[in-house]
Amino acid sequence: xxxxxxNVYDQVGEREDLIDVITNISPTETVALSRFGRSNSKxxxxxxxxxxxxxxxxxxxxxxxxxxxxxxxxxxVRTRVSNYTQILRRxxxxxxxxxxxxxxxxxDEFDYQREKKTKEIARDLDSAIxxxxxxxxxxxxxxxVNGALxxxxxxxxxxxxxxxxQTAFNQLLQTCWEVGGAPNAAYMAxxxxxxxxxxxxxxxxxxxxxxxxxxxxxVDKYDSDFGVIMLIxxxxxxxxxxxxxxxxxxxxxxxxxLFFEKLGAVGEQARGSVVSEAxxxxxxxxxxxxxxxxxxx
Length: 297
Known about the structure:
Blueprint: H1 31-35, E1 37-40, E2 45-50, E3 79-84, E4 86-95, H2 96-100, H3 109-131, H4 148-151, E5 156-158, H5 166-178, E6 185-188, H6 190-197, E7 208-209, E8 214-215, E9 221-224, E10 227-233, E11 241-245, E12 250-266, E13 269-282, E14 289-292
Parallel strand pairs: 1-12, 5-14, 6-10
Antiparallel strand pairs: 2-3, 4-13, 6-11, 7-8, 9-10, 11-14, 12-13
């Protein structure tokens, strides 16, 4: 005859075992946004000027005593470059009942949602300054920033599905150098970063730290003929592109730095928005370059 006893399956009234922790492993780093300089914009259309020197002429010699002669080629017209600001917004709302309920892992649902939206805006802006293409906007269409990949038009290398190689990478650096650029950082996604870390010339080896039981496989600095290049892992770079930047010419210009706005209540809801408006300032896109169509696996 089976014994009769109080057990966990028949009894009621047990409290739930919900720990006071919320786990979220979504990446929050915004590498380009953090590394680019910061500037201010005073209008939704942000402008700057570029100029250049005439080509060096080793045959620049005149006859002794000759009069000065002038030509239209003596004067180089400056170029005006523009970029539109993009408005980024993340909205959230929380019911008053949800606010009143005791929650696991947080003390205030409204503040928790505001913090999440702030991180999301930063990620959106990081992606936009890399990937977005320009749009002037209308009363019915949002204006959009011209991101770095779209801005770089002078120095480009098409890889036609091939993995990035030292030869192609060095050639791109040389192309930038020949027009006056001096890139210092290369931004790339996961597979391209792994490929670059697999470059073996000229050493042909990796360091092994026997004491620390560590094999050093990654390459984060590439000492090229054209300077030291930081190899930067960027989550929002397309898998099939690499950009090499002279970072001092790249800045994020804010018309409205990120801010929080509490909106008017509607019904039984507390509402808010996190907003920013910014554009990308590329003072000399021809100082930098990009590789397109790289292998992705």
